[in-house]
Fold this sequence. Notes:
Blueprint: E1 16-19, H1 23-33, E2 35-41, E3 48-53, E4 56-61, H2 67-79, E5 84-93, E6 103-112, H3 114-120, H4 131-144, E7 148-156, H5 164-171, E8 175-179, H6 182-191, E9 195-205, H7 214-235
Parallel strand pairs: 1-4, 1-5, 5-9, 6-7, 7-8
Antiparallel strand pairs: 2-3, 3-4, 5-8, 6-9
Family: Belongs to the PNP/UDP phosphorylase family.
EC number: 2.4.2.3
InterPro entries: Nucleoside_phosphorylase_CS, Nucleoside_phosphorylase_d, Nucleoside_phosphorylase_sf
Amino acid sequence: MTQIHVRARPGDVAESVLLPGDPNRARRIAEEYLEGATLYTEHRQLLGFTGTYRGVPVSVQTTGMGCPSAAIVTEELARLGAQTLIRVGTLGGATPVVKPADLVVATASVPNDGTTRQFLGGAPYAPAASFEVVEAAVRAARKLGVPHHVGLVMTEDAFYASTPEHAWLWASRGVLGFEMEASAIFLVAAQHGLRAGCLTACSNDIGDPQLVPDDVLAGGVDRMIRVALDAIVTLAGG
């Protein structure tokens, strides 16, 4: 049976899946990093591809922007047999410690979003990445010599609501940056007993409407993707 939004059947999706929000990034990963990648869905522009990386089957599945869409995709990937889900995207930095294009490996997310709140009925909860995924990502970053930070992020719904004051407050509580999907991915994965992680490249400082220069950000995204793929190989026993 195909899923409602991710129009794929069991067997189309690999056990290890990268989750970019942007369909163009999904296509780029498939074309530039995977071998033998084939398109298994393009419904609603939630592009999904499966190929291999260093002999390990890997899928790349678009989530769209925000927790509602990411939660739907994560749920349907679980039904399709995925076992390890790693978000690969961008975040706004909350602290000057996180430089433009730096890699941030999330250990957990402050769930400042409506999707996890609805799932949980408002109950307190700490959406966290799987230790194995964090460990594999950090090992890969160190091996590749990629500058990185490991710690807490915040997941939010309203992209333009964040202010420098908001960023400073949460930075004082240990938050490295703000993004829009991790908490829902972590929660839904946990509900299904799946491994999940979140890797992001810093695209801007909160309160600064200017993204980092395209070439700088592209370099950070490339490093993030390579770290994520190497982490998948490690998690697969390679």
